[in-house]
Amino acid sequence: MKELFLLGAVFLAVGFFHIGTASAAKCPRVMVLATGGTIAGREIPAAGRTGYKAGVLSVQDLIADVPELREIADVTGEQLCNIDSKDMTDEIWLRLAARVNEIFAADAADAVVIPHGTDTMEETAYFLSLTVKSDKPVVLTGAMRPATAADADGFENLLDAVRVSASGDAVGKGVLVVMNGEIHEARDVTKIHTQNLAAFASPTTGCLGTVKNGIPAFSRAPLRRPKSEALFDLGDVSALPRVDILYGHEGDDGALAFAAEKAGAKGLVYAGMGNGSIPAEAEKALAQVAGRGVIVVRASRSSGGEVTSSVPSSDEAGFIESGALNPQKARVLLRLCLTKTTDAAEIARTFAACR
Ligand code: SIN
Q1: pLDDT grade, residue 51 (50/70/90)?
Q2: DSSP three-state, residue 178
Q3: What share of the chain is helix, strand, coil (3-state, %, to 5)?
Q4: CA-CA distance, 210 to 196, in Å (whole number)?
Q5: N or C: which terminus of the chain has fewer CB atoms within 10 Å of its end residue's CB?
């Protein structure tokens, strides 16, 4: 009798162990790799509605403030930095890409969610989309209101980002931005509003999907996502070459192209008018610096549409079209290209594969 009882107890214990591991195995492991931003911001008393300090709360605070996260995933946190994203640096970008690659290579998580300031979120997302070598989900999110505000949007955005990252549907979709109930691809998304909660859009392609009532739903896949061979290996890269953005305007005489060259720019992105058009004097100046080896990319100051080859004089000068990449994304890609080569034809081929 005593033996039977002991046997039963052993069966029960083994059963519980299996149930425990089975459910743990199903629960996706999501690493929250925090970088700061308004989502980690705190209001400054008496500083008015828009007065607050970004990058104050820790990753532990962020996770503790959203207990529902535990129902979705096995969430762990790590603080990479805690900054206002206007102060993003190359050093942090390189460290962030290396850390995400390391987490996936060590199989330390099934997905990474990155709380980030909204101001440069699109650039960081695109940088990671070109440098993270994994099909596992990487999702950036943020907030337009600090965590202490009555209408704080960061809690729901973090929850949605974890929901998307933990849904099997996000696997193989590249780096995503989840904000205000929408899922965007890193390549297409941009910040379109200075204040609204609906601050992000993908003007040329539309978003990839939505999160409604807590349920992520993709309506399309990012078919232009760079193939793994187009991704950049940052192994021995410790600095990114200088690339400046010049903003086109009436009467541009091109003086800033020479100033940028003098400052050490190895590449220039010209945010031109419409389909990347460049005023004649500025085009002459850019052709001169291109002749001395500076790579010039034509992008557009218009918020939607693609920049195509349409201007013979720009083509003759060897300028590269940015395609669907806005100026800040074209700058990210050009800097990464310049870590590998200064050959304009090779860089043009990489742009053709990514834009
Ligand atoms: C920031 O980009 O860090 C501040 C602004 C924001 O997160 O909305």
Answers
A1: confident
A2: strand
A3: 40, 20, 40
A4: 18
A5: N
How many angstroms separate the CA atoms of 26 and 34, rounded? 24
- pLDDT above 50 for 122: yes
35 in ligand 1 pocket by Cβ < 6 Å? no
**22 alpha carbon to ligand 1 midpoint, in Å?**
40
- Which residue has tokens 């100033």? 259
Amino acid 161 reads: A
Q: Kindly report the pTM of this predicted structure.
A: 0.91
Q: Is 119 in the pocket of ligand 1 (CB under 6 A)?
A: yes
CB-ligand 1 contact for 118 (6 Å cutoff): yes
Averaged confidence pLDDT in the chain: 91
What is the arithmetic mean of pLDDT over 239-268? Answer: 98
pLDDT tens digits for 71-107?
Answer: 999 999 999 999 999 999 999 999 999 999 999 999 9
| Per-residue model confidence as pLDDT tens digits over 1-35 | 444 444 444 433 333 333 223 345 579 999 999 99
pLDDT at 225 over 90: no
CB-ligand 1 contact for 154 (6 Å cutoff): no
Return the active site residues. 38
Q: What percent of the chain has pLDDT over 70?
A: 90
| Interval between CA 50 and ligand 1 midpoint (Å) | 11
Residue 43: CB within 6 Å of ligand 1? no
At 65, give phi and psi (nearest 5°). -75, -15
Residue in 338, 15, 329, 327 with CA at minimum distance from that of residue 177: 329
The residues, ordered by sequence, that sit 6+ positions from 325 with a Cβ below 8 Å of its Cβ are: 187, 299, 333, 351, 354, 355
Q: Which of 9, 272, 274, 30 lies closest to 138, judged by CA?
A: 30
Cβ–Cβ < 8 Å for 84, 37 = yes
User: What separation in Å is there between the alpha carbon of 140 and the centre of ligand 1?
Assistant: 13
Residue to mutate, 84, 114, 193, 196, ligand 1, most ligand atoms under 8 Å from C-beta:
84
